[in-house]
Write a structure and sequence with these properties.
It is a single chain. It is built from 10 helices and 10 strands. A 6-stranded mixed sheet has the order 1-2-3-5-7-10, sandwiched between helices. The chain is of the alpha/beta class. The protein has 2 domains: 2-182, 2-enoyl-CoA Hydratase, Chain A, domain 1 (Alpha-Beta Complex), CATH 3.90.226; 188-223. Strand 2, helix 1 and strand 3 (43-48) form a beta-alpha-beta unit. It is globular and about 55 Å long. The longest helix is centred in the middle third of the chain and has 19 residues, at 67-85. The mean pLDDT is 91.
Length: 224
C-alpha cells in the first residue's frame, strides 16, 4: 500500500491504493510510518497514486471500530502524523486530486503543501458525524487561522487549489510539485534541518530566540 523510491537527496513515499483513492487502513498507516522513519533523505515527498492524494481513513475500517479500537486507530494516525511532522529534514505533500479527512491531516503534518491545479481539499468528518482525529484540530487552525479552520471543519465544504492557496492551506500551486522538493534538496542540508526545527518549534518567544541563537552559532561553527 506504500511505495518508496529514492532519487538523489529526495525520497518519494507514495500511497499506492488508487482503486480506493489511497484510503488508509491500519496496515497502510503502519507502512507509512515505517517508510518515513526508515529514510534519511534530506527531503521527502508524500504523494498519492492515481487520481487522488488520499481519501483519508478507509470507511470500511471506521465502520468496524468500537470505542476502544477507535481510540487506538486515532492514536496510530496521530503517531504517523507526528512522525511526518518531526522528520529530520523537510517533508513536502504533493497534492494532486482529492485530499479528504485524514488525507488533509497528513498533508497538514508536512512542512510544505504543494498542490496541482486539480487538487481539492475537504475535512469531511462532520458530514459523517465524526471529525479528524489525527491532529487536525491542532494543526488546521495553526496553519490557516481559527476562523478559516472553523469554516472548513464545521461545514465540511470542499475548496479548490486556488482557494487553498488563498487560505494558506497550501504554499504553492504548480503543475510540478516535485520541483519544490528539488529546490529544497539544492540548499544546505544542515541549514534546512535547523531552520525547519526553529520555524516549527514550540515554546515561548524567549525560548525560541535562545534556540535560534544557539543553532545559528552551531551552523557557523560547522563551517569553520
Amino acid at each position: 500500500m506504500v511505495r518508496t523510491t529514492v532519487d538523489g537527496d529526495v525520497c518519494t513515499v507514495t500511497l499506492d491504493r488508487p482503486e480506493k483513492r489511497n484510503a488508509l487502513t491500519w496496515e497502510a498507516l503502519d507502512d507509512l510510518e515505517t517508510a518515513v522513519a526508515g529514510t534519511s533523505a534530506p527531503v521527502v515527498v508524500l504523494r498519492g497514486a492515481g487520481e487522488a492524494f488520499c481519501a483519508g481513513a478507509d470507511l470500511a475500517i471506521v465502520d468496524e471500530l468500537d470505542a476502544d479500537t477507535a481510540a487506538e486507530f486515532a492514536a496510530l494516525g496521530q503517531r504517523v502524523a507526528r512522525t511526518i511532522e518531526t522528520y529530520d529534514g523537510a517533508v513536502v505533500a504533493a497534492v494532486d486530486g482529492a485530499a479528504r479527512g485524514g488525507g488533509v491531516e497528513l498533508a497538514l503534518a508536512c512542512d510544505l503543501r504543494v498542490a496541482t491545479p486539480a487538487a481539492t481539499f475537504a475535512e469531511t468528518g462532520v458530514r459523517l458525524g465524526l471529525f479528524g482525529a489525527w491532529g487536525g484540530t491542532v494543526r488546521l487552525p495553526r496553519i490557516v487561522g481559527e476562523s478559516a479552520a472553523l469554516d472548513l471543519a464545521l461545514t465540511g465544504r470542499t475548496v479548490d487549489a486556488t482557494e487553498a492557496l488563498r487560505l494558506g492551506l497550501v504554499s504553492r500551486v504548480t503543475d510540478e510539485p516535485r520541483q519544490v522538493a528539488t529546490e529544497l534538496a539544492a540548499v544546505d542540508h544542515a541549514a534546512l534541518r535547523t531552520l525547519n526545527e526553529l520555524l516549527r518549534g514550540g515554546g515561548d518567544r524567549e525560548q525560541r530566540e535562545a534556540r535560534e541563537r544557539t543553532a545559528f552559532a552551531e551552523l557557523i561553527a560547522a563551517r569553520e
